[in-house]
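Q: Protein A?
A:
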Amino acid sequence: MKDMDSIAATMEAIGRAARAAAAELAFAPAEAKALALTAAAEAVWDRRAQILEANAKDMAYGRDKGLSPAMLDRLELTEARIRGMADGLRAVAGQRDPVGEVIADWDMATGLNIRRVRTPIGVIGVIYESRPNVTADAGALCLKSGNAVILRGGSESFHSSTAIHDCLVEGLRQAGLPQAAIQLVPTRDRAAVTEMLRMVAHIDVIVPRGGKGLVGLVQAEARVPVFAHLEGICHVYADADADLEKARRVVLNAKTRRTGICGAAECLLIDRAFFARHGAILIEDLLAAGVEVRAEGELAGIPGTVKAQPDDFGREFLDMIIAARLVDGVDGAIAHIRHYGSQHTEAILTENDSAAARFFQRLDSAILIRNASTQFADGGEFGMGAEIGIATGKLHARGPVGAEQLTSFKYLVVGDGTIRA
């Protein structure tokens, strides 16, 4: 009980400090926030040896825990990935500052001028697993949007996240901004997560970033509003009018570039007319790349495939595995995705404008793509510099959550002694 009391007291102190920092960040100059992020980027690169050393400890911990190869890939940092982190911090620093942007401006017959203006949400709580780069991405985007953030990384990424967080705090220090603007929960104890989910007095929104278990827990138990996606069950549909070479490139990339990310394709849908014209080539490409193809119907007769089970559709594998089936045209693909999808990301491969328009119009996933890989479902690839996550809900934020999506708005109303009749 003493330990629980200690964690509760720690989280209460973190929450109070975050709320105080948020009050200052709400009017912090854009130049100060940009300076903090640029300085943090320089610190990340200058301290890359220390970050790699910390990551080596986390990788050993992850192996001991029996993490899958895909999860270890999420956890691992390389010099190239650290460079990517630093570049992401600089990219966010260079973006337009959303705080104070006038979204709309109009005059009323009463003489009032009304402006709708972007304002920070306040305090963001981010709970994440494995990927230590989320520490940098989330810290950067929350700071850019004038929000304080409380970060709770996964137990397996504890050392890496701590080393990266130190760089962010160095940036805040150099810019003269409150160091409590970006805080990292200093314990692996899961009780800290439980506390965060209850901190309605100090946290305005929770963003979970991780597997189905984590996100499901947060959505079920949080008393604080949540931006989240439960699963990334992403589909690629090869239409009758798909270009064969484009389709081959995109399908392989969508599945194999990185299997452990939420934008990885988990199901391949092939139009019967495409299959009649081109045969098993898309399946054969996947098999040659080492992908286990769990196929249904006629596709199950292709040598090397595994017969699909009913629960293979609507499943997030996060591995070198993909489900595959034939469908009857674009409407067949739409019906399958509506039934099995998670409203994350779906791609259509086609040269037929009408088929693409129908796919875009009749599906309601957060991201719909034509003739490109689902692996582009990423805030960095959308020009946001980074993302705090992908939101599949329909309120406030949807799709990649960048700095702009981490703002709310307020109305500024100006009169001249104006009274209401």
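Q: Protein B?
A:
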Amino acid sequence: MKKKLGSAILRFVILIIVLLASFLLLRFYFTSRESVSYEAPLTPVRTVKASHGDISQSVSFLGYIESDQMVPVVPFVSGTILEYSIKEGDEVEKDQVVARIDSEPYRLQALQAEAQATALESAYERMQKLYESNAVSQQEYEAVVAQRNAANAQKSLADLQLSYADVKSPISGTVIMSKGSVGSIGTNTDYLAIVADMDSLVINLSIASRYYDTIKGNADSLEIKVYDETRGLESSAAIVSVAPMIDPLSRSFNLKLKLDDPEDFTIGSACSVTITYEKIEDVYTLPTNVLRLDDSLYYISDGKACYMEYDPSYENDDLIICPDGMEDYDFVIEGQNSLFDGQSVRILGE
């Protein structure tokens, strides 16, 4: 019994020694190794400096290029087309003959009217002599005068219709549509061609009524630009007319513009129109996306983000005026929504 008790005590002592030795070894290990510290990475941000230039208020609209003069060539008499001398793209002068309609029926009609007028002119001359000698009554005389005048009018009409057999261009310009042909029938109910003045191009815009006072009240000082972005064309434009009223149904008004440099623009092509109605020149500006949703921004000073409340004195959709005296500062344009005041940052690109 004593032998078993001594053996148990020995095992217990050995266990204590082992545990103590393990504790000492672990303590030595942890106290002797180098300590490791963790540093959080700096928040990356992108910054921008103020730019020097102009800032303006403008509105943009979509429209189509038209000719201020776009006139159909319509025959005034009907008949078979014997000559048709134009095609699309041709330049024509005012009163230039572009087609000829068979004139024979109208020539015969003119000859008939001329013969009738000649006969009644002779009858009138005889009647006048008789009337002056009181050989006929005034009623008989006036009847012959009326017949003579009617015959002369009929002759003038026949001559006019004969002249209309030569179909002329009503204006000088470019043929933009041609659909006549030799052998077809020309009538006064359909056009043979359309001629447009390519040097007088306009845009007719229908604009929402909320812009009426702005455009009407600043018509003399507006800066207007027209762009054909597909073809890379640009022209300034002037106001031709502003509608005197707002359409109560569509709540819009009409604005007509004329291009200052119409060369290379094409009738029917789509374009954008930018109307600048207010401008501040020679100022420092920042992109609008430096602003946070709560009308604040961050700038960088000594590697740290500095919070600043800012309500711009002037802005548009793209730019705001830079805070006074901060033209050389770096303003956070990306990453500002996750910053706090005084936070150290890393500027991307440096």
